[in-house]
TrEMBL record:
Protein name per the record: DUF4377 domain-containing protein
Species of origin: Plebeiibacterium sediminum
PROSITE patterns recorded: PROKAR_LIPOPROTEIN
Pfam families per UniProt: DUF4377
Segments forming domain DUF4377: 76-114, 157-211
Length: 215
């Protein structure tokens, strides 16, 4: 029994030492994080269902990214589209991150500011490329459910589109005036209408520039 106790004690010390070593190897830096007033589109590594992740950047990289599959500790706030948020946070490069997440995590320190930056309604004409295949999509802003108990999220077969001037894909449940046919790729001229209060975005078809059968 004494030998067994010594074994468990040794194992505990080894585990503790390894944990300390791991923590000591984690690189840390204080950064400023910006959460942007409009959300993006994308899916987690473990899912094929698209959602609307927040868009963020930190002043260490200055690169706008989707806030998905990234650990965030202590960021307890109610996000509102149309507002820009700035936080001070600890950025940690984890030497041994959990599976299926990125190796960087952020730990909340303080909220620096919350500023409403989309204050005026706006319209712009853009060209959208529409893929021949749809994607599974569940909205987050606002969330939609198939029942009144708010248990099962509603999942759409959404249009997979991108601005022809951008590489950022979107999942749209509707383009007003557009009748989509599966298997066809389109280039559409649309009007993007942004309403500031309450925040909303919609797309209205102006012209079908091209339609190509991809089957």
């Amino acid at each position: 029994m004494k030998t067994l106790n010594l074994f468990f004690g040794f194992t505990f010390l080894c585990t503790l030492f390894m944990g300390c070593t791991k923590d000591e190897n984690d690189k840390e830096k204080i950064v400023e994080i910006t959460i942007y007033p409009e959300t993006g589109y994308g899916a987690s590594m473990m899912s094929d269902i698209w959602t609307q992740p927040l868009l963020f950047s930190d002043n260490d990289e200055n690169q706008v990214k989707l806030l998905v599959d990234i650990i965030t500790d202590g960021f307890d706030f109610d996000y509102e589209r149309g507002y820009e948020y700035k936080f001070r946070a600890k950025k940690v490069w984890m030497q041994e991150p959990p599976q299926d997440v990125f190796s960087i995590k952020y730990e909340f320190i303080e909220l620096l500011s919350k500023e409403r930056v989309i204050i005026n309604d706006s319209e712009e004409n853009i060209n959208l490329f529409v893929s021949s295949k749809t994607v599974k999509f569940t909205p987050d802003y606002p969330s939609e459910y198939v029942d009144e108990e708010n248990i099962t999220p509603k999942i759409y077969d959404a249009l997979n589109v991108k601005n022809t001037d951008s590489d950022n894909w979107m999942a749209l449940t509707k383009i007003e005036g557009f009748n989509y046919e599966t298997g066809y790729e389109y280039v559409l001229k649309v009007k993007k209408i942004t309403q500031a209060e309450p925040y909303s975005v919609k797309y209205v078809l102006l012209e079908t520039i091209s339609k190509e059968n991809k089957n």
